[in-house]
């Protein structure tokens, strides 16, 4: 756990997507506190286009059973050892947040809502990182499976945009090289008419 809060710059640059969690649980109060602050993300017309399905603590085992059904093809045919290996990426996070957004029929609003929810997710990643908690935003295909949606209580007109795993970790991933800003910026020039 970090002793002091990071600067915004430190949190942005130091944050890593964690895929190897150590299995230590994330307390519900901690997860709710992170989400409670993350909702201050900018959102168009203050629509607050999100809701969350969370799992940490006692409900994780039931969630693992649901994930096994949808994420591990033919899991019943696997040995106990092979199943445990394949489930490790789902059983070691200390908590889950499924971010659910409305699927507005209007394209502009739908894109605005997705963008706002994405900012919320980054807020949550940075807030968690500041507490020494890693995270990974995952978008497996089964999130759109009607039976998975039912199992998660997702309603008609909603979509899960993130299986957000959170948890503690023992090893810090090395940073990956990013493109330089010079490769990404084009200075505007008025085009000849």
Summarize the structure in words.
- The protein has 193 residues and is of the alpha+beta class.
- The protein has seven helices and four strands, in the order ααβααβαβαβα.
- Strands 1-2-4-3 form a four-stranded antiparallel beta sheet, with helices on one face.
- The longest helix has 24 residues, at 107-130.
- 24% of the residues are buried.
Concise summary:
This protein is an alpha+beta fold and 193 residues long.
Percentage of helical residues?
25-40%
Strand order of the largest sheet: 1-2-4-3
Could you give the count of β-strands?
Answer: 4
Name the structural class: alpha+beta
Number of helices: 7
- Taken from the alpha-carbon principal axes, the silhouette is globular
The radius of gyration computed from the alpha-carbon positions, rounded to a whole number of angstroms, is: 19 Å
Uncertain regions spanning at least 5 consecutive residues: none
Strand content: 5-15%
Could you tell me the mean pLDDT? 95
Identify the notable features of this structure and list them briefly.
39% helix; globular; 193 residues; four-stranded antiparallel sheet; 7 helices
Q: Any chance you could write out the topology, listing elements then pairs?
A:
Layout: H1 8-14, H2 28-38, E1 51-55, H3 60-71, H4 80-91, E2 95-102, H5 107-130, E3 134-138, H6 146-151, E4 158-167, H7 181-184
Antiparallel strand pairs: 1-2, 2-4, 3-4
